[in-house]
Amino acid sequence: MAGTIFLIAGPSGSGKTTLTQELVCRISGLAKAITVTTRQPRPGEISGVDYHFVSTERFREMQLSGELMESDYIYNEHYGVPKTALEASGDIVIVITVDGALTLRRQEPSTRSIFIMPTCPEAASARVAARKCPNEDSRIARYETEVAAARHFDHVILNLDFMQSVFQVEKIIFAQRHPCVVDLGRNQVRIAG
What we know:
4-stranded mixed sheet, 7 helices, 5-stranded parallel sheet
């Protein structure tokens, strides 16, 4: 692993997956780690691109054989980060569960954790409902617990405006890549030294 691992987490419906897709398109040298889940693909999702969709049996095999860096059971499904996902050169971004981010952060202290905060519970609930997830109730029920964990993250981004949130995360990644540059706002920077 040559670069920095950026963990993107937040409650279901916070916009973390959409935001991450935009970041990977915009930032050179940033790769999305493909994680593993036992949930069914949503319309338009492709195994090996969005997630590796596997059976519960295969997931358990991966856990037992040590193939996963971390794993979590949440929303009545299994989620995990394969060790192979961290082998890319350059910086890596991982869309991950809140608990998974906290676990991976303990294992890899050099990671940078970013919590995507929805504007309100109703906004997150509406996004979850629009997906027509079979486990919608369990996702909504965890909202308060997941929001309470935000204080354990390096950065918290309130997702009021999608592009503004993208810009804020870009600044975090830029600052990690270029620690001698200080952002003065309004597109002004100064070289620290």
